[in-house]
Amino acid sequence: MTDLSPNRTKQFQSLDFDIELWQKLYYKHQQTYIRKRLVAIKHLHEGQSRLQGT
User: Fold this and answer.
1) Is 10 exposed, middle or buried (0-12, 13-18, 19+ CB in 10 A)?
2) How far is CA 5 from each of CA 9, 12, 42, 44, rounded to the nearest angstrom?
3) What string of DSSP letters covers 23-50?
4) Strand, coil or helix: what is 53?
5) What is the value of pTM for the model shown?
6) Which tens digit of pLDDT belongs to each residue from 30-43?
């Protein structure tokens, strides 16, 4: 089972962000709900909050 600590944002920010993989996944998946999640991931890595990314 994964660790569901209260501060997932800090855990998420500690991960590496691969822009090439992100672009590949973005163009591969045409569904809006998947693209929204991918855009949210990109915004978090750019330092925006979850609320700013909407």
Assistant:
1) exposed
2) 10, 11, 22, 18
3) HHHHHH---HHHHHHHHHHHHHHTT--T
4) coil
5) 0.54
6) 888 888 888 888 88
